[in-house]
Design goal:
The chain is an alpha+beta fold. The protein contains 16 helices and 15 strands.
Amino acid sequence: MKKGARTCVLFIGLAMALVWSPRSLFAETSIPADGKSNATALGKLRKFELLNGLRIVIAERTQSSGLTCSLLVKAGSASDPAGKEGLSYLTARSLIYASQKKPAQRWKDELEDLGAQFAIHSDRESTVFSAELHPEDFRDYLETLRQMIVRPLLNPSEVERLKSEILQELEKSEPERGRNLLRSWVFGAHHPYGAPFRGRSDTVSGLNMMDVLDFHQTQYLPNDSALIVVGSMESAALMDTVREKLGGWIKEKKTEGLIPDVRNRERLEVRVIEDQSPGASVLFGHLGPARLVPDYYPIRILNLIVGGIGEHSRLVQTFRARGIPLRTLESHFRFLRTAGEFEIRVELSRTSALPALKAILASLGELKDGPVSESELEEAKAKLLEWHEGILSSDVRVAEQLAQMELYQLASDFLLDLPRRVSQVTAERVAEAAKSYLNTSSWFAILTDADGTPVESEFSQLGSVHIVRQRSLE
């Protein structure tokens, strides 16, 4: 009997002392609640490690009725060999949808029978297989995961079918091509962070099943993975199942690929795209900090002040003061292990893109050179704390954050301690972060404009800008 509707989705994205138990195949660390309301909302957090190195993170949440189970594999597009960009993405899809043990339709039918929602999150440094299910179905789901990911048996024709699907996706994804172009400029086309995470048409076309199996053998290792379980299930019973199903996953020594340092480019570059769609857009970006930067919290607040607190964000205020009609606005600091990126994307109506680029640079310049007001600081803090409350209210979002904590080896109390750390950030620290991490002298921008009217002389006040005109983002 079916327990729920089928949902099958494919998404594009702790050092501690161990106390060994002689009665089990795992080591355990317990992180007790400390009386804080956040600890109660998060639930009882426990960490284990199997003898094969697989780390287990469990958040027991008695208020939950379901279970979220995420398998984090610390391999993403940055692990793709040169000339095989897109291999990590194809591997993740092939393990699930090209299995001889469970053909794609059978797998989808089983998800439907379990009432489970399943997703694959792929990015540059990790791949996460995530499912929402009923606690009583955990054993069956983990057995399926074991068959498909730990010991895969692939169907060559299905791998080829998935390749064709990816090639079609690459043809249709205009926004992704823009971001790929930006990342290629920020990190360099040959840097692991600069390559498109789904690959390029020429590299994906050359991949085959043996490439997938080789990537799986070298990158999908228990000692470089973690299983995160959040919801209403006691850790003792859960660990018996995990030990049974994943204890036999064989530990191997992983060859660590060195991620080279990224040097900031001392140049300005603009791509002008003559697009016939209505309106205009700007994609602006530059190099950003790594995830473990000491200024992480001031930077998060800075980003909200730039474009994340609605009417009072600096970008919205600047656009309105200049009479530039704004349809949508996004700003992001994306943090990676050794470097990061800062990105602003705006969509406009009834105007050209060049005035918007000038407004972005003016707004960032004002932030770099001037103070941060107490009112915008408090509004940004409130927004960040609202985000934090939203995390704690959702099993899925808690699991996502626990996966990030494992990936970047963040402190065990990262989620619990966030409100205190945010409260300690001052306006002066945010202003210092703006000076350090916003860049108006080395950046890249893509201007998409229906008429392509900007001429070289109109860019002169921006400095020595290298301008490239293209008919499309191809």
